[in-house]
């Protein structure tokens, strides 16, 4: 990288723009908005610059080096390559900050793309290589950055010293501000422009004892692009993350680098950390005042024992939140081209787990063995023979289509299709994590599958250009 990102105070500093066209106008507008004492040197001005003329000094002239005297920043923005080069060379020899428009290689200063929630500013640049990419990023950030965060920044500035004196360590101060930025009440007050009420809320919050919190987050079925925006925000604020085996490395890479990661991974037939110990870890970390994310694959309330963990937290008096995730029944089937319902094939969908507590009762097989419904079974591989037998015994046709989706939504996804009478044999061909889909809609995968072919095409393209 050749350029160091900096924010420079330009207010009241003398700046020079050489050129009178649209590019010069764009640069002039940025400088004027930040209070620069601006001079423009050009034989004529475009309409946009003419409209701003009362805000700068116009020298109706061609460039000469005398105009560089006592300038702080210089912009070469004429339509002449030769003139721009002369401006750059002369300014560079004098050690001035100089920007040569549309030529990052000849610029000591680059004008970045900016998203503003004043006084908050987010600036970024591609080093002049891909201005279109910077514009695209700016549009995306502008859409997701809360409009009232500029107000939050101003209000927070008033309380900065109070927070520093009230909380002993940087970690405690960071934790306070992270919770404040996330608080529904404070955000509502700021969005409504109720500044006095927001400041009163902050005063009261500073005085309250700071306690830990647990956020139960669903990581989705595997594809990191299926992570919700709220889930991503929580991963970026977490101080401690307890994660399961099914959470993909790509999602773990999105967690803030400073967070402590604790694997409590579970695989079929094996628990690396007993559930009681996971519960106690959550309680311990929260009692230490930490912002703890409990990260689970899929949705934490879909056969994920999330409710059991929250009950322990509730009993311990620890506050918590829940961020739902896309469950495998929705994500993996969509990526396999299997609609859960279809007007011609299934009017309902039922989700069950393939195993339960040791003393758990058998499911109501008669209600599950119904035609024109989709049966989705989590964690059913080890009991596939039993599931096959019981469904057929209760009247479901042996020819009923089935599909096993292995590692759904990931590049390693495989879909094995067949009929109910073949279920136990099909299960031997796949590994966990896999999802069973039983019902007429399973047969639609052959015609509606899209993900595997797209993934194969992308892999072939990457190999071609490797």
UniProtKB/TrEMBL annotation:
What's its catalytic activity? siroheme + 2 H(+) = sirohydrochlorin + Fe(2+); precorrin-2 + NAD(+) = sirohydrochlorin + NADH + 2 H(+); uroporphyrinogen III + 2 S-adenosyl-L-methionine = precorrin-2 + 2 S-adenosyl-L-homocysteine + H(+)
Any single biological process term in GO: methylation
One MF term in GO for this entry?
uroporphyrin-III C-methyltransferase activity
Q: Which residues form the Siroheme synthase central domain?
A: 119-142
State which gene encodes it.
Answer: cobA
Annotated coiled-coil positions are none
Region (Uroporphyrinogen-III C-methyltransferase): which ranges? Answer: 212-466
Q: Where does NAD(+) bind?
A: 22-23, 43-44
Keywords from the UniProt entry: Cobalamin biosynthesis, Lyase, Methyltransferase, Multifunctional enzyme, NAD, Oxidoreductase, Phosphoprotein, Porphyrin biosynthesis, S-adenosyl-L-methionine, Transferase
The active site is formed by 244, 266
The organism is Oceanisphaera pacifica
User: Which SUPFAM superfamilies did the record assign?
Assistant: NAD(P)-binding Rossmann-fold domains, Siroheme synthase middle domains-like, Tetrapyrrole methylase
Q: Where does S-adenosyl-L-methionine bind?
A: 221, 297-299, 327-328, 379, 408
Q: What is this protein called?
A: Siroheme synthase
Which residues does UniProt assign to the signal peptide? none
